[in-house]
Each structure stands twice: as structure tokens, then as C-alpha cells.
Amino acid sequence: MARMFRVLGFWTLVIGLMAFIGDMTEMALLFFFQTAVFVLLGYLNFSERTYILMFWGYMILSFLGFTYWTFFQMGLPF
């Protein structure tokens, strides 16, 4: 399970680099931060239950943040 957090770190790094190349600096910085957190957590060797609980917490937080941003912060498409 620790290896999967390092894999998540790799993919968030790839997405962050693509966002940086596309001049989306805020998104790139967000994904670089996520990369650092995932790689750090990947090397801490927690139990599998702890990794699963952390991943669920991450998913709930990210989905709530995405929903808040799209509902309250983005303008109407008209």
C-alpha cells in the first residue's frame, strides 16, 4: 500500500508538470504539494488500514473541495 502512495505521487507530479507547462500555475502548485505529501506518506510505512483511512480522508476532502469550488466559486456558464 505504501508503494501505491508513491505511485500517486508520481502521477500528481506528471499532472503538476503538465499544468505548469500549460501556464496554470495555481493548479501546478497544488499538485506539486500533493506530490510531496504522497511521496512522504509513501515512505513512512504505515499499516495498510492507516493508508486506506488516509486515502478515504483525502478523497472526501478533495471531493468536497471540488464540489464547493464548482458550486460557489465558478461563475455561471452563460
Mind sketching the topology for me?
Elements: H1 2-21, H2 25-42, H3 48-73
Helix pairs in contact: 1-2
In words, what does this structure look like?
The mean pLDDT is about 95. This protein is an all-alpha fold and about 80 residues long. The protein has helices at about 1-20, 25-40, 50-75. It is flat, with a radius of gyration of 15 Å.
- Specify the overall morphology: flat
Biggest sheet features: none
What is the string of SSEs from the N terminus onward?
HHH
User: Over the alpha carbons, how many angstroms does the gyration radius reach?
Assistant: 15 Å
Protein name: DUF2626 domain-containing protein
Pfam families: DUF2626
Transmembrane segments: 29-46, 53-72
InterPro entries: DUF2626 (IPR020254)
Jot down its keywords.
single chain, 78 residues, mainly alpha, 3 helices, 0% strand
Q: Concise description?
A:
The protein is mostly helical. Helix content is 82%, strand content 0%.
